[in-house]
């Protein structure tokens, strides 16, 4: 039985960001993807110049109404990423709630893009909308450490802190939380960063149990755009295939990320030449070239179950 995903994300003509980072890998893995472009830009904003348009909340509503009028709004997943507008974000919440009323099993996967490394890169007024409206209706969220701390009001200094933050996020709504990156020290040394995941399960008798994992991820000395969108899409896909095995879902997801990033950085250095730092165009994700790794990733990143 096919799975349908409604992906509401940014779109670029050149490169892989937002819907282009999510749609191709999901389609490769057998998902039907309907895309609504929250912005349509010539390229991502890491370039020197960009041009384009931003979709308003009213325009999003019009597009959704068109889908509804044709009775083709049956979805299994909703996937969202970066946005800068509170009314747009609130419209997304309205759409998710309506789709969940039609299909109580619908899974909403949200990357709550707020900022990183101690500072916000979206307007401050998005924070209460994410905290009070978006996260409570989400089923899977993929914050970084800064976003997880911001949403819960608790700092992460130890692995124990991270577990407590993930539990606080569970209490807000989502059953699956993956902190995609953190400043915690890796047991493998300073060339690795630590990611953590937590998933609540309901046993047949109705009681709850929680699976938690830690993942040590090799650092790469480059700035990529679109990796967060790819990550959320892959976590959607692999939790679909392994709904009760967060360890395997994370290993598949992080391994895809590793293969795509390694292929991208190798190609970028080849283009840039010896001793030269790759440019934004050279660091566009090598997505099509990674098709086989997306479909069947060799496991190169193992997750450790933690208590």
TrEMBL record:
It catalyses: pyridoxal + ATP = pyridoxal 5'-phosphate + ADP + H(+); pyridoxamine + ATP = pyridoxamine 5'-phosphate + ADP + H(+); pyridoxine + ATP = pyridoxine 5'-phosphate + ADP + H(+). One of its GO terms (cellular component) is cytosol. GO terms for biological process: pyridoxal 5'-phosphate salvage. SUPFAM superfamilies: Ribokinase-like. Residues 80-268 form the Pyridoxamine kinase/Phosphomethylpyrimidine kinase domain. Its EC number is 2.7.1.35. Its cofactor is Zn(2+); Mg(2+). Keywords: Acetylation, ATP-binding, Cytoplasm, Kinase, Magnesium, Metal-binding, Nucleotide-binding, Phosphoprotein, Sodium, Transferase. Pfam families: Phos_pyr_kin. Pathway: Cofactor metabolism; pyridoxal 5'-phosphate salvage; pyridoxamine 5'-phosphate from pyridoxamine: step 1/1; Cofactor metabolism; pyridoxal 5'-phosphate salvage; pyridoxine 5'-phosphate from pyridoxine: step 1/1; Cofactor metabolism; pyridoxal 5'-phosphate salvage; pyridoxal 5'-phosphate from pyridoxal: step 1/1. It is an enzyme of class 2 (transferase). Belongs to the pyridoxine kinase family. Catalyzes the phosphorylation of the dietary vitamin B6 vitamers pyridoxal (PL), pyridoxine (PN) and pyridoxamine (PM) to form pyridoxal 5'-phosphate (PLP), pyridoxine 5'-phosphate (PNP) and pyridoxamine 5'-phosphate (PMP), respectively. PLP is the active form of vitamin B6, and acts as a cofactor for over 140 different enzymatic reactions. Homodimer. This is Pyridoxal kinase. It comes from Xyrichtys novacula (Pearly razorfish). The lineage of its organism: Eukaryota, Metazoa, Chordata, Craniata, Vertebrata.
């Amino acid at each position: 039985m096919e799975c349908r995903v409604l992906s509401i994300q940014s779109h670029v003509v050149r490169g892989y960001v937002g819907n282009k980072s999510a749609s191709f890998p999901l389609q490769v893995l057998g998902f039907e993807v309907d895309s609504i472009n929250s912005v349509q830009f010539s390229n991502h904003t890491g370039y020197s110049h960009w041009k384009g348009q931003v979709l308003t909340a009213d325009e999003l509503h019009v597009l959704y109404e068109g889908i509804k009028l044709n009775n083709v709004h049956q979805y299994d997943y909703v996937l969202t990423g970066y946005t800068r507008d509170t009314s747009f974000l609130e419209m997304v919440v309205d759409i998710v709630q309506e789709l969940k009323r039609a299909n109580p099993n619908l899974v909403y996967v949200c990357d709550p893009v707020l900022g990183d490394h101690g500072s916000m890169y979206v307007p401050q007024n998005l924070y209460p909308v994410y905290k009070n409206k978006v996260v409570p209706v989400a089923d899977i969220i993929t914050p970084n450490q800064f976003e997880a701390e911001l949403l819960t009001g608790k700092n992460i200094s130890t692995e124990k802190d991270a577990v407590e933050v993930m539990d606080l996020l569970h209490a807000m709504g989502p059953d699956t939380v993956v902190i995609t990156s953190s400043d915690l020290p890796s047991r493998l040394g300073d060339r690795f960063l630590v990611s953590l995941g937590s998933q609540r399960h309901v046993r047949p008798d109705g009681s709850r149990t929680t699976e938690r994992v830690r993942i040590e991820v090799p650092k790469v000395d480059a700035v990529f755009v679109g990796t967060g969108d790819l990550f959320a899409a892959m976590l959607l896909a692999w939790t679909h295939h392994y709904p009760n095995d967060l360890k395997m879902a994370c290993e598949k997801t992080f391994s895809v990320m590793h293969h795509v990033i390694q292929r991208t950085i190798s190609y970028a250095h080849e283009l840039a030449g010896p001793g030269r730092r790759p440019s934004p165009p050279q660091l566009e994700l090598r997505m099509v070239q990674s098709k086989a790794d997306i479909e069947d990733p060799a496991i190169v990143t193992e997750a450790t179950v933690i208590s």
